Amino acid sequence: MRPTTLVFPIDEHNRILLGCKKRGFGQGKYNGFGGKIEPGETFRQCAVRELYEESGLVANPQDLECVALFDFQFPFDETLTHISYTYVVRTFTGDVKETDEMESRWIPIDEIPYEHMWSGDREWIPQLLKGDKLVGIIAFDRDNSGVDLMKLNIVDEVMESELVARIDAYIEENTEDL
Ligand SMILES: Nc1nc2c([nH]c(=O)n2[C@H]2C[C@H](O)[C@@H](COP(=O)(O)OP(=O)(O)OP(=O)(O)O)O2)c(=O)[nH]1
Question: Residue 79: CB within 6 Å of ligand 1?
Fold first, then answer.
């Protein structure tokens, strides 16, 4: 799978915007906003595009804070494996709207519905909210849902390689499986 992005907006009341996914992979789960990178996009461009498409919020790429790089591994279905650049954004305009993909709401951070989210999120979202930056692997079980292994390191800064994103997307678009 192509690299993906994931964005968590946080407002001035310290509420987080989460969307319940209405269709596709992760349906029924609350999550941030994101998706696959398109050819020629940087990770930040992908992140703001997906944020707008899925939530209605408008953000500038430079206002995103890169807070994590996850290697989401699905050993029982390799086609699902992807890396995900994860951002927090506190500056944005526009109105939250329901979209084809997501029904979104602002949630106080002590009321995050972890029971309706990806199961590993209850470990790392609190870390991100207290300001840690994380890089590492989350490997999923046979159901492609539960977590078999989580190995996350706290880092000073998440290295964002815009170039790698472009090359990955280019290769994906221009080569065939051998
Ligand atoms: N919060 C969270 N998200 C996860 C986990 N595992 C995992 O694959 N995801 C998310 C991150 C991405 O938003 C999404 C990747 O799947 P996807 O690219 O098919 O998402 P999408 O349907 O929104 O993509 P798109 O068609 O809009 O491009 O899955 C996890 O453990 N926690």
Answer: no
Is the distance from CB of 24 to CB of 101 less than 8 angstroms? yes
Interface pTM, i.e. ipTM: 0.92
Residue 120 CA: nearest ligand 1 atom is: 31
Q: For the chain, which domains are there?
A: 4-174 (3.90.79.10)
Q: Per-residue pLDDT tens for 120-157? A: 999 999 999 999 999 999 999 999 999 999 999 999 99
Index of the ligand 1 atom closest to the CA of residue 117:
1
Buried/exposed code over 14-47 (b: 16+ C-beta within 10 A; e: otherwise): ebbbbbbbeeeeeeebbbbbbbbbeeebbbbbbb
Mutate to test the pocket of ligand 1, among 1, 2, 5, 6 (most ligand atoms within 8 A of CB): 6
Distance (angstroms) between ligand 1 centre and the Cα of 176 equals: 24
Task: Name the closest-CA residue to atom 8, ligand 1.
Answer: 72
Q: Provide the whole-model pTM.
A: 0.93
If 0-12 CB within 10 Å is exposed, 13-18 middle and 19+ buried, where does residue 104 land? buried
- Nearest by Cα to 34 from 95, 101, 96, 92: 101
